[in-house]
Amino acid sequence: MRFKRISLYVVKKIVKLVSLLLTICILSFLLVSYSPIDPVQTYVGADMMRVSPEQQENIATYWGLDESRTEQFLSWGKAVLEGNLGTSLIYRDSVADVIAERFLASLVLMGFAWVLSGIFGFLLGIVAGMREGTIVDRIIKGYCFLLASTPAFWLGLLLLMLFSVSLGWFPVGLASPAGILAEDVTFIERVRHLFLPALTLSIVGVANVALHTRQKLIEVLQSEFARFAKAKGENGFSLLWRHGLRNISLPAISLHFASFGELFGGAVLAEQVFSYPGLGQAVVQAGLGGDVPLLLGIVLFSTLFVFAGNLLADLLYKLIDPRMRKGEVQ
Amino acid sequence: MMDINQVEKSDHTLPNSLIKDKTPLFEVNHLSLTFRQYKKGLRESSTQVIRDFSLKIHQGEIVAVVGASGSGKSLLADAILGILPENADVKGDLKFAGEELTMEKQMLLRGKDISLIPQSTNALDPLMKAGKQVQSVIKRKNKKSIQERIFHKVGLSKKAGEMYPFELSGGMARRVLVSTAMVSEAKLVIADEPTPGLDEHARNETIHYIKQLADGGKSIMFITHDITAALEVADKVAVFYAGETVEIANIDDFTGKGENLRHPYTRALWNALPQNDFIPLKGSQPLPGETINGCAFESRCPIAVEYCAQKPPQNKSVSGGIVRCFHA
After folding, report:
1. What is any one of the record's Gene Ontology cellular component terms (chain A) (predicted)?
2. DSSP secondary structure string, B64-98?
3. Could you read off the pLDDT of B268-277 as tens digits, one per residue?
4. Residue B195 sits in a domain of what CATH number?
5. Which of A43-57, A232-246, B77-91, B162-176 has the lowest mean pLDDT?
6. What is the pLDDT, as a whole number, of residue A292?
7. Does position B4 have pLDDT exceeding 70, yes or no?
8. Which of A138, A230, A232 is best to mutate for the B interface (most B CBs within 10 A)?
9. Chain B residues with CB-CB distance to A235 below 8 A
10. If you average pLDDT over every residue of chain A, what do you get?
11. What is the per-residue pLDDT for B15?
């Protein structure tokens, strides 16, 4: 029975993922095919004057540009299914390799920011919720509202101006010092380069978790079971520990895992400001440079990334909440 | 059915001196409860929810506090336990076992000497196993075995202790709540509307457990708006109207057409019961915060005269009960 449930769950999720990917593929392929970027021109680049119209025609035919959109989509889709995402025009390297390399850099940045903002936001939310209505609560709430309405790139610029330009504590950009071989870059240097972009991302990510945690904790503290717990002699920290944490961690966890999309969106902006060579920066370059294979590749990859976040949130919820866990089994 | 006396009795005997001179286990005198609120900026306003509440409960006694919805009954429980929100002002004397019940004392006693049976099964933490929630009030060792023994007494299996509240039926959850009061060493149990919304069987079961608790030596404050349930279990009935105790009557006073009852409101409640004359009382009680100069019941009272609206009546003892009425 249990096995049947689990396999049904897996099948459902797979169907969802496949249909999601298919939709994303069709949509992004359509958008790109209608974009004003001429693939032949982008491919040839500055040598366009030296390529005769007949040669251009030949390239177009070779790429299948004279075929209908459906046929183009089907042949692209077939290649993707075979694991061939094509070659990036900007990097002159296979798209899969570029994504892998860039994602690793982004993963460090996003992971760092994600963990920090999660812990910090959760703690701030608890403090505000426990002290609802006090000056502490108002300061935290105001701080969160301010953060929630702050664009990531603007905050990044501010931090850059303060810490890199005025104080000179951190480098202005990139992931490692210029002019040094990759294998000679020290760990400290890497952290120094990572610090500001990660700080930008985590500061922006705090507001959401903090405000939701605060709200949930206030709800829990006003609940019937909190009243009963108080009547049983529990209060303050023991009440929070025994009855609060489990109840408030559920929304915080699901929210934080489901925020992979926003995290990725924030990374695009932060990486741009700090010239940090991650996936976010690559997607901007691909878009501006008309690098269609890379653009589509990153779109597909980020879809997977966000889907994975939501899936993790879903699974963790089932793991932690007995109502979900046992409900599944019974 | 199950007998709670054997194990529990020894824990609940009070010092002999207390029983000898009949000091009430719990005593409230002129309790008032006001909520402060900030309206429009910094102007503070206050709403009085309980105006003048007095009550005595002796050891092993069940005293029902009967009042309509919205008369501030549940807040009364919170006031006694000391778990009101911070914007509440409590005035009046609370005494427990002859000693003044201060805020610090309340904090020490709640869950230990004073226990609550809440109204709703939502009072169980949805993410904590039922057994664990009962064990939290046990101060002795062998928490688990004590909890399982009590569960057995109220007809819950060992397995129920490992269940989460959502896996329990309404009836089982209610037994979990009752067993919290049973395992505690509480001398005073406040049952906050434990019967409304229950079917006949569950209601009788709950009343049975409350009687058991009292037989085990615990004093019970049974808060309810169900006067029939109150008459079934209680030794005394305190009638609560618009934040005041208007009458404390003995159970035997509720007979006939209510001739032995001292207050017109109590009489009206009694005669409104279907098994009696089924005469409804017109109007509604004053809202919390409404200013009342005279008797709270004046506006609905069939025997009110002019001065009833001018000054409030005081408590007086009449034929073994207490009443707040000029005419009694």
Report:
1. plasma membrane
2. EEEE-TTSSHHHHHHHHHT---TTEEEEEEEEETT
3. 989 888 888 8
4. 3.40.50.300
5. A43-57
6. 78
7. no
8. A232
9. 107
10. 83
11. 46
Output the DSSP codes for A259-309. Answer: THHHHHHHHHHHHHHTT--SHHHHHHHHHHTT-HHHHHHHHHHHHHHHHHH
A133 CA: distance to closest CA in chain B (Å):
11
**Who's near B110: CB < 8 A, 6+ residues apart?**
A230, A231, A232, A233, B81, B82, B83, B116
In a domain, B140, yes or no: yes
The beta-carbon neighbor of B164 closest among A230, A243, A322 is A322
Q: Which residue of B has its CA nearest to A321?
A: B127
Contact B136 A243 (CB under 8 A): no
Domains for chain A: give ranges and CATH numbers.
2-85 (no CATH), 102-329 (1.10.3720.10)
How many contacts (CB atoms, under 8 Å) link A and B?
68
From the CA of A79, how many Å to the nearest CA of chain B?
49
* B265: CB partners within 8 A, 6+ apart: B239, B241, B246, B247, B281, B297, B300, B301
* Residues of chain A positioned with their CB less than 8 A from the CB of B81: 230-231
User: Does the pLDDT at position B14 exceed 50?
Assistant: no
Q: Is B115 on the interface with A (CB under 8 A)?
A: yes
Among the partner-chain residues B81, B120, B167, the one whose CB lies closest to the CB of A231 is B81
Say what the pTM is.
0.80
Cβ neighbours of residue B164 under 8 Å, at least 6 residues apart?
A322, A323, A326, B126, B127, B128, B129, B130
Domain tally, chain B: 1
Contact of A64 with A268, CB cutoff 8 Å:
no
- B156 inside domain: yes
Structural domain span for residue B66: 5-241
- By C-alpha distance, the chain A residue nearest B81 is A231
The confidence score (pLDDT) of residue B162 equals 92
pLDDT reported for residue A178? 65
For A3-57, the DSSP string reads: HHHHHHHHHHHHHHHHHHHHHHHHHHHHHHHHSS--HHHHHHGGGGGGS-HHHHH
pLDDT-derived band of residue A142, with 50, 70 and 90 as boundaries?
A: very high
Q: Is B128 on the interface with A (CB under 8 A)?
A: yes
